[in-house]
Structures are given as C-alpha cells and as structure tokens.
Design brief:
The chain folds into three domains: 4-85, Elongation Factor Tu (Ef-tu), domain 3 (Beta Barrel), CATH 2.40.30.10; 93-208, Rossmann fold; 209-250, Dihydroorotate dehydrogenase B (pyrk subunit), domain 3. It contains five helices and 15 strands. The protein has helices at 71-77, 114-123, 140-149, 165-172, 187-197; strands at 4-6, 8-14, 17-23, 34-39, 50-58, 61-67, 83-85, 102-107, 128-135, 154-158, 180-184, 202-206, 222-227, 230-235, 242-244. It has a seven-stranded antiparallel β-sheet.
C-alpha cells in the first residue's frame, strides 16, 4: 500500500463531521471507490490508515467526508495536519445510460460516495433522484451543508435509530419506477434497501468495512456473499466495497 503526501486545500467542520479537500493528480476516483488516509503528524499510533470513500473529484481536487470516530480520524481532522492518501481502490458503482431515472439513497455520514456518483450521472445525462437521511442529532451546520450540496435532494430527518431507513423507503415509493438504486448508509439501511429492491429493481450497496492491508492480502474485510448458490466470502477492499444487493448473504 503506497501512500502519497497530498496538498491540503482546506477543511470544513460541522460538529464531528469533517470535509477535507486535497490536490490529487493521479487516476481520478470512480464513484464508490475509497482511499486509505492518515495524518502526516501521526506516528505508528494508530498503526492503520483509515478507509474513506472518495466524496468528490473535480479539476484535480479530491475530497473526503467523514465523521471523527477515533484517534486516526481525530488526527486527520486537525487543522495543522497534512494527509497521506493512497490511489483510489476497490470496485465502485457501475451504471449505464437509461431512459428511466435511478435513485440514490444515503444515510448519515455514509452519504459521502453519492456526491461523486451524482456528478458522474449528471455528466452522463442520467436522471436521478436523491434521498438522504439527516439524523436529528446532526449539527445544524451539517444539515445546512447537506442541503446546499444536494440542492435537489429529498432530505429526510430521522431520530438516528435503527428504523431510520423506513422513512426514506416510504419516500421512494414504488422502486419499480427506477432502473437502479444506489445506496450508501449504515448496515440497517442497506439491508432494508436490499429487501425492498428484491425482485423489483437492481440495487448496488456501498459497504463500509474496517480495512488493514486494502489489497486483499489479510482478508480482514471479508463479508458473506452468495456465489454459485453457496455461501462464501468476498473481500470488500478488492471485490467491493460496492456489491450487487442480491449477492450479499446477510
């Protein structure tokens, strides 16, 4: 895993939510791909870099959106910290041109990969509706930022419980009117989308998993999947983190 020092253009903070923009002149990230990131000021504690979805990319500037959850992300959030990042990795969302719209569904800070996906869909001329959960506990500044950056999205305020997916699915209505559903959110939301889309519309789910090597060597991010009718495991870092909903053996 090769890390590159990147020039940081700035940070925005919304409570515990952080947005970092940095210069990236390598291969542009595809929607749903991730990078491994760490602060330049940290030593070997914590030892592992953090996997973060590519949030956006435009004219050589990439961005990461994440929530501070531990020592690694707390260091990344510091104003004085530079960052080290890998090239984008993993399997992202796949999409084709369609005469029917697609739906983007996001929950909490896991809305991150949907910004880049929305940009690519717009450039490809694919109509899409965006549904985003905004937890009632989220800072007002974060809710305002979401509203500004997704001006056409339907924002659904929830109480942050495991039932947060229900109001969003109610807003989507009949999924059969979409040619595809692309989701990124907590496990409970992804599972609800998986169940709701079965037999109606294809769905692709972006899974957030802990990663160590990020190249498939350690199998630390293995998730259960169906393959040739049998239950087995796939590595989120190389075979994901985006998976067709019907392949997940949850």
């Amino acid at each position: 895993m090769k890390l590159y020092e990147a020039e940081v253009f700035g940070r925005e903070r919304f409570g515990e939510h952080i947005l970092i923009r940095y210069r990236w002149e390598g291969e542009p990230p595809k929607p749903g791909q991730f990078v491994m990131a760490r602060a330049t000021i940290q030593d070997l504690n914590p030892f592992l870099s953090r996997p973060l979805f590519a949030h956006d990319y435009d004219k050589g500037v990439a961005s990461l959106l994440f929530k501070v959850r531990g020592a690694g992300t707390a260091l990344l959030a510091q104003e004085s910290a530079g960052i080290l990042v890998t090239a984008p990795g993993g399997r992202g969302y796949t999409f084709e041109e369609s005469d029917r719209p697609v739906a983007l569904v996001g929950g909490g800070v896991w809305v991150s990969p949907l910004k880049l996906l929305s940009r690519r869909l717009t450039l490809s001329g694919v109509a899409h509706d965006v549904y985003l959960e905004v937890p009632a506990t989220a800072p007002k500044a974060y809710a305002a930022w979401i509203s500004e950056n997704y001006p056409h999205a339907i924002l659904v305020e929830t109480n942050g419980s495991q039932q947060a997916s229900c109001p969003i699915l109610d807003c989507l209505g009949d999924l059969a009117r979409y040619s595809a559903v692309y989701a990124s959110g907590p496990t409970e939301m992804l599972d609800a989308v998986r169940i709701a889309s079965a037999g109606k519309v294809s769905a692709q789910l972006a899974l957030r998993e802990r990663m160590a090597c990020a190249n498939g060597s350690c199998f630390g991010c293995a998730i259960p999947v169906w393959r040739f009718g049998a239950r087995t495991y796939a590595r989120a870092c190389t075979e994901g983190p985006v998976f067709p909903a019907e392949t997940l053996a949850w």
